[in-house]
Amino acid sequence: MAEDLEIVSGTKEEAYQSIIPQIRGLLEGEPDLIANLANVAAALKEQFGFFWVGFYLVKKDELVLGPFQGPVACTRIREGRGVCGAAWQKASTLIVPDVEKFPGHIACSSLSKSEIVVPLFHQGNVVGVLDVDSDALNMFDETDQRYLEKIVSLIKIDQ
Prior knowledge:
Beta-Lactamase, alpha+beta
C-alpha cells in the first residue's frame, strides 16, 4: 500500500472505519513488528491528532517504550504502575477520563489529561500495550475502545 493516508473528517466512527482498512494495508506483507507498530502509531496520530500515541512492549518485568508519536515519554513502566501498567496487569483495556484522578498515574507529560490503554496479546499473554493520550479531558469512550482493540488485533506478533 502507498504510504499516504486518506484522512477523513467526520464522526469518530467514520474516522475509525476509514483508517482500519488503511492500517490493514500498511501491515499486510510486512513481518517486522517494530515497523508495523511505528506505522500504526503514525496512522493514528495523523488521523486523530492525538497528543501522544505509541506502544510499550513487555520485557521481563516491565513495559519498555516502543515506537510512538508525540513528545518524549517514560521509558520503563513496572507492572501495575500507572494506566499502562494497570492495563497490562489486568489484561484489559482501561479508559481514564481524567488521569489526575487515576491512582498511581505516572505523569510523563503534565499536558496529558485523558488516556486509553489497550493490551496487545500473543498466545493469550499480554506482550505490550497501545497507549493513547489526549490533552483534553474525557476524550475516549467505548467507540475508541472497540476500534482500537480491533486495530491492535490486526498486529501480528511472532515472538
